[in-house]
Amino acid sequence: MTVPIDRAGLIVSAVSLGYFAALTIAGEASERVGPQTTMSSAMLLVTAGFFGIAAAAMLPVILASALVMGLGFGAVDVAGNAVVVQLNRARLASALNYLHLMFGVGALLGPIIVGFALAARVSYSILFALGAGAAAAVTIALFATPQIAREAHLAHEAGGFLPILAHPLVWLLATVLFLYVGAENGIGAWLFLFLHLRTALSESISSWGVSLYWGGLIAGRFAGARLAHRIAPRPFTLVASILAAAALALLIAISEVHAIAAVAIFLVGFGFGPIFPNMVAVGAEQFSADIGRMTSIVVAGGALGGAFVPWLMGHEIVVGGLDRSMSLALAITLLMTLVALGTFRVPAVQR
After folding, report:
1. Range of the structural domain that residue 330 is part of
2. Of 10, 85, 259, 317, whose CA is between 20 and 30 Å from 225?
3. Are residues 218 and 287 in the same domain?
4. Rounded distance between C-alpha atoms, residue 72 and residue 64, angstroms
């Protein structure tokens, strides 16, 4: 089936709509039926969405399937964090860094695998069918895994989201992730153009530069996991934010020294790496009886940033040029550092 590119873009919109809709639902479900059950059900939705897109012959069916897939993705984001927290109370930051490291691996390898498949003339339907098969295998494994023993905290269930939303820490964490995911996605989206046009690098080398950025993110999360027992999540986040901002400033300042640019790109990703899992770890430690609800709130903040900031950076490219767009990402990173600093000053959550 062939559709115009503007109508095909509705597929991304449908996935995003489902993702946002799932966040609150998954947070509440994680508290009531458990995060493992929620994640297993979410992967069932992902499987159904992949299969629907693979088999659909009409755009409305594809959009409905994309919506279902988005619901699954959103629920996996919330429940996946909650499962890891539930199993790793004594090493939250380390375990969450390892979990989110796999996002970087997927971001790095996924486009490469799809690129080779398309070069071999594998159809989109087959690719989505393979995705459905992989998701189905994960779903079966999750349902077959013994259930995690749930902690009793029924007294907290009646309050729902309101007690969490009343605490300033959750707003600070959501704001950090709004700024972080926005800057991370915006740089990832526009780095190729920045390298190709501003530094006159070839298309292939510019693409490798983007891969280097995601490789730095993976390395940063691995370092975050290894160092979490030595440095607490909040100071670690500050150091990582400052490193990312300094490397981004260096990248903007240089134009011809390609080796230095490569180091700067890697360090931007490296600095960004531990920020998301560390902020979730801070929230999990403070809201230990409401992990699912807390995660859904702060992840929603990140998702909003990921939707808004890349668009804003693209707008800045049009009206002010590539340097101005990357300078906006730098300003957002510096603001993120200030907000992260503010998390030190809020009172602890009363248990």
Report:
1. 162-342
2. 259
3. yes
4. 13
For the segment 42-77, what is each residue's pLDDT rounded down to a tens digit? 999 999 999 999 998 888 999 999 999 999 999 999
In the block, which residue shows the tokens 């990832």? 188
- The dihedral sign for the CA sequence 155, 158, 160, 163: negative
What value does the mean pLDDT take over residues 77-85? 92
Distance CA 336, CA 176 (A): 5
171: in domain: yes
What is the number of other CB atoms lying within 10 angstroms of the CB of residue 38? Answer: 27
Q: What is the CATH number of the domain that holds 89?
A: 1.20.1250.20
207 and 304 share one domain: yes
Give the distance, in angstroms, between the CA of residue 324 and the centroid of all CA atoms in the same chain. Answer: 25
Own/partner long-range contacts of 106-112 (Cβ < 8 Å, ≥24 apart): 107/188, 107/214, 107/217, 108/211, 108/214, 108/215, 108/218, 112/211
Pair 298, 332 in one domain: yes
Cβ–Cβ under 8 Å, residues 177 and 305: yes
Residue 109 in any domain: the answer is no
* 117 in any annotated domain: no
Q: What is the dihedral of CA 72, 128, 188, 71, to 10 degrees?
A: -10
Answer whether residue 151 shows pLDDT above 60.
Answer: no
The residue to which tokens 């780095």 are assigned: 191
- Are residues 137 and 220 located together in one domain of the fold? no
